[in-house]
Amino acid sequence: MYSAAFIFQPGTYDAEFHRLDALIDEVAHSLPGFLGSETWVSQDGLTRNATYYWTDLETLRVFSQHPDHLEAKRNYAKWYDGYHVIISKVERVYGDGNLQHPTSQA
Predict the structure, then answer these.
(1) Considering the domain boundaries, does residue 100 fall inside one?
(2) CATH code for the domain of 23
(3) pTM, whole model, 2 decimals?
(4) pLDDT above 80: residue 106
(5) Is the confidence at residue 105, as pLDDT, over 90?
(6) CB–CB of 3/90 below 8 Å?
(7) CB burial string 11-48: b at 16+ within 10 A, e below
(8) Domain count of the fold of the chain
(9) Mean pLDDT for the stretch of residues 11-35
């Protein structure tokens, strides 16, 4: 399993951003190796994180090369004040079973 964490500082969003954001989310959900996602906002509200979980690296690669995703990457400076991406291989997940999480189905 892999995770892709997109950590960013939001800038100004416009209609084009919202259109692409919705399309990219649809693409992620349509891929058979997509497990789910989660988001968080820093305590000061200035930084956000969207982490997507994937069964395999190939599915993550397919997602990252989708035309809508590539278009958003080309135009990121219009909508974000800064970003950082972390791709991680998830070695182990566990819990007590009482908290639903995208990785629970892996």
Answers:
(1) no
(2) 3.30.70.100
(3) 0.89
(4) no
(5) no
(6) yes
(7) eeeeeebeebeebbeebbeebebbbbbeeeeeeeeebb
(8) 1
(9) 95
